[in-house]
Amino acid sequence: GLEFRTAWDKARQMGSEVWFGDRDVSITLQRCWDKLSNWERLSLLLECLWDFGVSEADVERLKQKDIIDALMEEFAKASPALVLPLVVERDLYLTAVLQKCPGPIVLAVIGAGHIDGIKAAWSKSLSSTEYQELISLPKVKKGDIPFHRLVVIILFGLMGFMWISLYLMHHYLP
Read out DSSP for the chain? Predict the structure, then answer.
């Protein structure tokens, strides 16, 4: 996030307007959640619990274009359902926001993974219906487990697993 802070400071020094152009994160996350099956949701939550660390060196490597391209390809293979709301939709949204910016010169600070998508979408214009779709929350589908219920199910499952493990250790280990 340092690049965003630097851009903010420079814009303020120059007396420029600053717009925050990314889509509301709650919409993006809800649209991601909507694309996943209940099994994928559970898998994603469990993976987040077990695979949490990213080093500063990892972040620096992510700034290289060839690594970004490779990661985007891997991400598309590993989580095809999430590519649409996290990458494609946000590329379109960011493009629409940038196209609406006033003035002859616009400085945009964007994630490197969005550069190619914005370039590809630049020659197109979203209709108001398409734009409204990008900023709308998905409708709840019948049979979906709401996020908060899934978290409760996982917590009770983990507590049950721990209780059974402690019981077995206490009764069957010397």
Answer: -HHHHHHHHHHHHHT------SPPHHHHHHHHHHHS-HHHHHHHHHHHHH-----HHHHHHTTSHHHHHHHHHHHHHH-HHHHIIIIIHHHHHHHHHHHH--SS-------GGGHHHHHHHTT----HHHHHHHTSPPPPPTTPPPHHHHHHHHHHHHHHHHHHHHHHHHHH--
